[in-house]
Amino acid sequence: MSKNIVIVGAGVAGVNAATKLIDNNFNGKITIIDMGKNPYERPYEDVMTGFLGAGGWSDGKLTYHTAIGGQLSKYTGEDKAMELMDQVITNFKRFHPKPEEVQCSNPIAEPDFIKPYFGLRLFPVWHVGTDYLHEIGKNWYDFLINNNVEFLWETKVTDINFDESIIRADSENSQTIRSYDKLIFGVGKSGIDFGKQLAEKYSLPTEPKSVQIGVRFEAPQKHFQKLIDISYDFKLYRKFEDEGVSLRSFCTNNNAAYVAVEQTYGDHSYNGHAKKDEAFRNDMTNFGILMEINGIEKPFDWSRNVVQSVNKGGTGLYYSPSRKPSTTSEGIDVSTIQINRKEFNIIRSHFKGYFKYIDDFISDMKIVFPTLSHDWGIYIPEVKYLSPEPLVNYNNLSLTKYENVHFVGDALSARGITVSGAQGIYVAEDLIK
Ligand SMILES: Cc1cc2nc3c(=O)[nH]c(=O)nc-3n(C[C@H](O)[C@H](O)[C@H](O)COP(=O)(O)OP(=O)(O)OC[C@H]3O[C@@H](n4cnc5c(N)ncnc54)[C@H](O)[C@@H]3O)c2cc1C
Q: Which atom from ligand 1 is nearest to the alpha carbon of 411?
């Protein structure tokens, strides 16, 4: 068994990994290095860094399904994935000051009116409660400290020598050099650039990625109300297996729902958000209609090219058969240029034959939600640039090139708390074998 394990990132993945090691009487040394603060000192404005990472100040929703939250069952198989997620949920309950308040919402089966046209992804969610995350963090931290885990806070890892198993980290007053037998790399979204940098430096092989592109759809909420009543953040989906394409509605916002402009690599694309304050209620709904397209050789370049070709005058485009673009929650016009039907047909062609899937999606929504008719608009484009995912051995998430280095959480392929924690536990289970 390895004696000296260093975990970079005290996020959800790293903390769950350390906990699993301790629960299995690991008798070596565990060091966790994080650029943020311990849970007693971490201020609310540190959204991404510190004990429990981005999960520490999150919405505290623990999704409980292998189709949500990033890749897990790809490595572990379905049954093992569910078992690992159970362990994460148990950990959150274990350090919760009122575990009985952790409740699971499990939506009812897909309604008949959706069935012939779309799949509706319904999945259970455990609600930890944002208000309790702070207390959970402290309890969990105390447990780790009491079990001799060493923490280096406000210490940023700036370089890792994979060949010699040495880490360099900087804090305000000092530089730390550490060696490791095994390294767990769980830097989350806040460390994504560092991960990329290492991947390039060591020419780490990566998994092929898909293109994720589409539009942001917006309409008055009343047309979707019968579905919103069943599932607030509904996820409609459909799959064309033979063509390597699947579509899903993404990130649904209701009640006080606003389309947001995102600027990436100098171009505009769209997203959405919802305000909680009733004062902002506009009774609108917006969601992405995102296509996942597999088999495109250079997915990043391909997506960049499409996004550039559908930007005009420095911003994105809006098409509607009847409506005008909306305003932001601050009452400012959403940055976009409205195009007519003829221009829209040209813009469609920039999606290189794939826009037909979005056309069909909208046509079928008009059947399922008949009052929708022409009362909708789309902001073009919405895009997700997926960062390269290092190629790992599926049995323990170690790099294929450096087998004593394990990537976990959002730094690998996760997108949520449960999957990140589960990946951490999966690695720890391998290390204690
Ligand atoms: C506002 C918000 C709300 C969210 N709500 C939810 C939700 O309700 N449900 C859900 O499932 N997911 C949610 N998420 C996503 C979820 O928080 C993440 O998927 C999850 O925390 C990822 O876990 P991780 O361990 O991979 O990384 P993180 O939890 O992000 O932890 C990474 C840690 O690494 C540290 N780090 C980074 N780089 C370095 C470096 N170079 N040196 C030292 N330390 C470093 C950071 O300080 C951080 O503490 C939310 C995210 C945000 C931002």
A: 26
Of 32, 33, 34, 172, the residue with max ligand 1 atoms within 8 A of its CB, to mutate for a pocket test, comes to: 34
CA angle 349, 353, 358 (to 5 degrees): 90
Q: How far apart are CA 319 and CA 278, in angstroms?
A: 28
Centre of ligand 1 from the C-alpha of residue 377, in Å: 34
Question: pLDDT digits over 247-279, tens only?
Answer: 999 988 999 999 999 888 889 999 988 877 889
Q: List, for residues 316-330, the tens digit of each pLDDT value.
A: 999 999 999 999 988
190 CB near ligand 1 (under 6 Å): yes
User: Which residue's C-alpha comes closest to atom 12 of ligand 1?
Assistant: 416
Strands 267-274 and 125-127 come out as unpaired
Q: What is the pLDDT of residue 232?
A: 78
63 lines ligand 1 (CB under 6 A): yes
Mean pLDDT on 83-91: 98
Please give the distance, rounded to the nearest whole angstrom, from the Cα atom of residue 188 to the centre of ligand 1.
Answer: 5
Burial grade of 91 (CB within 10 A; 0-12, 13-18, 19 or more): buried
Cis peptide before 381 (omega within 30 of 0): yes
What's the gap in Å between 21 CA and the centre of ligand 1? 21
Question: What's the sign of the alpha-carbon dihedral 392, 395, 401, 403?
Answer: positive
Output the CA–CA distances (angstroms, integers) from residue 54 to 13, 50, 332, in the order listed: 11, 8, 30
Model-level pTM?
A: 0.84
Give φ, ψ of 171 to 5 degrees: -120, 180
Ligand 1 in reach of 15 Cβ (< 6 A): no
Q: Ligand 1: does its nearest atom lie under 6 Å from the Cβ of 49?
A: yes
pLDDT digits (tens, 9 = 90+) for 314-363: 999 999 999 999 999 889 999 999 999 999 999 999 999 999 999 999 99
Residue 33 Cβ contacting ligand 1 at under 6 Å: yes
376 has a pLDDT exceeding 80:
yes
> What pLDDT is recorded for position 2?
60
